[in-house]
């Protein structure tokens, strides 16, 4: 058993000394023999009473940490060495890895493993003497075997909506609040992330105020339509958006390799006519319906790439890279959930990369998609009014509009998904940590690093 093989070793001077307390270190030999049970090693009782520490077990490949009687995480030695967060291995300011991962022997073994009040401390002997500390909470939050202990912010779980849900719980915030107050800003961005759409009331009906609102989130993404765009039905650009005809539900920029993350719309004026209602459809709802009712179609929608183009302006000709395009639905390989919807049947190019044996099934798949997309239970029609802005997650929620007459003027902008998410994450981080200095708030143990 372990007792007989344990020996006290003298600790080399190490940067982690401050973390280590006064406990002696115990060398643990790599566990030999796969069939044998893992040996438990209890921490040596210290002189002062200490909180109960997790039990750890070590074998030739992993360290196991017993969180409770029925919950254990296992970490490979190579993973532990690679994830050392000491200032030599991971830069405390830039939060970048400095350790050369490829200098770690593939079969690296800890020389000593110790459970301390500060966390798991591992002493490594090769390729050179090194000591690593892993706080318990960090280990637990980053457990990959099993996965997903870490508490997640609420906005990471979408509310997938149909007409009834959004009509009764319409996500809405007030302009004054989001402009003045960071908590309200956080609430707004969290709603956009969770619902894929959010209305902002009380926005002065002009382009500058709409731009100021957009800039509360982040940069505006300049495209062939400009930065802040403002349009009427004057065909200023060769796109149906610049006419008065109806637009079926779609996402924008299917012809980009990286479609805009957010789209912000403000109806500034609609006079002398009727129509022009805005249509919103949650792509995640449609995807869920297709998956449940037409599984084969769901498969094709998530696998078959569709080429698209924007070629109505003489000086631009957009196609995604690669030219074969992207599937309607992108599925997150780690969760199996749809995370990105790209759909604009008007912008679809010649479909010539679908296998001939699949062509009819693919047409059936987009027919099934269109059926679920156009069901009244999926559609949310809203008549936008000046002073109400709508923000749409363009990688999830589809938008369209009814035909209209009269003079209808809108302004808006595109924004990057990453810039939006970065803003949301920072606001979340501030809320979690309080109003501390950034280096206090975000350290090498922060989630997501
Ligand atoms: Fe559009
Ligand atoms: Zn290190």
Topology, pairings included?
Elements: H1 2-5, E1 7-9, H2 17-20, E2 25-27, E3 40-41, E4 55-58, E5 62-68, E6 71-76, H3 77-82, E7 110-115, E8 120-124, E9 130-134, H4 136-141, H5 163-168, E10 172-174, H6 175-180, H7 182-195, E11 197-201, H8 207-217, E12 229-231, E13 247-250, E14 262-271, E15 278-282, H9 283-293, H10 295-301, E16 329-331, E17 338-341, H11 359-373, E18 379-382, E19 388-393, E20 397-401, E21 407-415, H12 417-433, H13 438-441
Helix pairs in contact: 7-12, 9-10, 9-11, 10-11
The protein binds fe (ii) ion and zinc ion.
InterPro entries: AlphaKG_dependent_hydroxylases, GBBH-like_N, GBBH-like_N_sf, TauD-like_sf, TauD/TfdA-like, Trimethyllysine_dOase
GO molecular function: iron ion binding; trimethyllysine dioxygenase activity
Keywords: Carnitine biosynthesis, Dioxygenase, Iron, Metal-binding, Oxidoreductase
């Amino acid at each position: 058993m372990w007792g007989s093989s344990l020996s006290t070793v003298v600790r080399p001077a190490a940067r982690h000394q401050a973390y280590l307390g006064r406990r002696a270190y115990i060398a643990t030999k790599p566990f030999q023999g796969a069939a044998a049970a893992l040996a438990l090693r209890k921490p040596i009782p210290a002189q002062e009473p200490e909180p109960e520490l997790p039990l750890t077990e070590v074998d030739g490949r992993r360290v196991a940490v017993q969180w409770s009687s029925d919950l254990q995480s296992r970490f490979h030695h190579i993973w532990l060495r690679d994830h050392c967060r000491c200032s030599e291995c991971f830069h405390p300011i830039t939060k970048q890895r400095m350790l050369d991962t490829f200098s770690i022997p593939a079969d690296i073994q800890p020389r000593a493993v110790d459970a301390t009040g500060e966390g798991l401390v591992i002493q490594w002997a090769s390729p050179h003497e090194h000591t690593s500390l892993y706080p318990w909470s960090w280990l637990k939050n980053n457990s990959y075997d099993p996965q997903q202990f870490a508490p997640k912010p609420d906005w990471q779980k979408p509310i997938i909506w149909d007409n009834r849900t959004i009509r009764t719980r319409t996500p809405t915030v007030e302009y004054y609040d989001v402009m003045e107050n960071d908590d309200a800003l956080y609430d707004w961005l969290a709603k956009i992330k969770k619902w894929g759409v959010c209305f902002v009331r009380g926005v002065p009906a002009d382009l500058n105020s709409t731009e100021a609102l957009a800039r509360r989130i982040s940069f505006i993404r300049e495209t062939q339509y400009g930065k802040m765009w403002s349009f009427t039905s004057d065909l200023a650009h060769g796109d149906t958006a610049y006419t008065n005809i109806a637009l079926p539900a779609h996402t924008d920029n299917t012809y980009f390799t990286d479609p805009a993350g957010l789209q912000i719309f403000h109806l500034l004026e609609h006079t002398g006519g009727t129509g022009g209602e805005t249509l919103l459809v949650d792509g995640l709802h449609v995807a869920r319906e297709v998956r449940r009712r037409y599984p084969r179609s769901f498969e094709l929608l998530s696998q078959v790439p569709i080429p698209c183009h924007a070629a109505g302006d003489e000086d631009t000709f957009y196609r995604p890279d690669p030219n074969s395009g992207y599937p309607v639905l992108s599925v997150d390989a780690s969760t199996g959930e749809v995370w990105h919807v790209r759909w604009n049947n008007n912008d679809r190019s010649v479909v010539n990369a679908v296998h001939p044996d699949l062509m009819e099934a693919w047409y059936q798949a987009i027919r099934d998609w269109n059926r679920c997309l156009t069901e009244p239970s999926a559609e949310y029609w809203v008549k936008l009014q000046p002073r109400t802005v709508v923000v749409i997650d363009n990688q999830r929620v589809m938008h369209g509009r009814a035909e209209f007459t009269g003079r209808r003027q809108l302004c808006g902008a595109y924004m990057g998904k990453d810039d939006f998410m970065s803003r949301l994450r920072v606001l979340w981080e501030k809320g979690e940590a309080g109003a501390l200095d950034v280096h206090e708030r975000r350290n090498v143990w922060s989630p997501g690093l």
